[in-house]
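ping. complex inputs:
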Amino acid sequence: MNHFVYKNGEFFCEEMAVADIARAVGTPFYLYSRATLSHHFQTFDSAFNGIDHLTCFAVKACSNLSILHLFAGLGGGADIVSGGELYRAITAGVNPQRIIYSGVGKTEAELRFGLESGILLFNVESAQELERLQRVAATMGVRAPVSFRVNPDVDPQTHAYISTGLAKNKFGVPIAEAFDLYIQARGMENIAIKGVSCHIGSQLTLISPFIESLRKVKDFVARLADAGIGIEYIDLGGGLGITYDDEQPPHPREYAEAIKAELEGTRATLILEPGRVLVGNAAILVTEVQYTKNNRGVDQEKKFVVVDAAMNDLARPSLYGAFHAIVPVREQGGAPEMVDIVGPICETGDFLAKDRALPPVQQGDLLAVLSAGAYGFSMSSNYNSRPRVAEVLVDGSHYTLIRRRETVEELVNGELLPKFAESGHGH
Ligand code: LLP
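pong. complex structure:
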């Protein structure tokens, strides 16, 4: 459920006409609905009521401070994967005791930053990372709280680029080798074993892969218990899918019920790392039509709608061939035409939609790219020296700019001309 609807032919976000915001802030921009974000967080989190649990929002899905602050205010934690995300989470007011740190490549500086911040858990992904963490914690005279991310070798049945829990993926430690790591960690002075974690992929539309991996993790936890190693946290990762087109993912309540049933009799606190399901359908990307054109070939004609948003603003269609519904902000009459909706970037791969039925549109019309809240702005770049777009949050009949549009001056900020350029000599 979300709060983006047509009212009398005008597309609205909650009580605000999208066109009015576009007039005020310019295009393109990401537009988030606060009611949708809160609703999604509460629906997800409350579905796990009845068991000890902690919902750690996967910051990578949408890392704007205002969004992180909103979830923190609702009792959420954060799942981070870099020092930059840790900085964001802390700046947004997330309690460090609700922050968990995932990722295969944590640097020494990042480990130190995590320890200094007093985060809840490090999800360690290799033997070398464990050794490095021990060393850093020892120099600081602290104990590092650790969970190992095990790789349960379960097929999430999703896009190959976002499958993470198969043996052939780079993530985690094979469950068969993880046992020895726990034994090793137990002997380390500056390591405190806290949990077992896994994450098998993203945009899952079935419950069974989650349950299959939870079973493997439970068996593993039982094996650790037999060896005298107690576990406080079981982290199941994120990955619950959403509807972009005709997918029918389970409702968070069904997902939670299945997990709770499987966890019956387990004492550990459950940690979840949802990203997409909390934010995906809580935002749109608003863009303006710049040009329409027909390119005629020998035996076919192709219609293009050139808009002011591009693959640098929303990478998912180009990168994964992902589908995002696109609708006119003012409902249009007329028979739909098959068009490609493309951006201004100099690459054939720059498109938001291909062979899409769209009512006839013209220069100046606004389009809304739906379900753009997850991995939308957070994956945007400056390619083609395009400033990153504005982000706006609607709350009822108000809106707030939560990130102003980047300027061209900011684009070159930090770049330095070599000394020789000043003297005008080549060398
Ligand atoms: N935890 C870990 C360790 C992860 O790697 C991820 C996502 C999540 C949680 C959150 O997963 P979610 O609930 O959002 O599915 N850019 C891709 C998705 C990449 C997902 C990476 N890991 C996309 O746009 O589809």
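The two ends are 62 Å apart (CA to CA).
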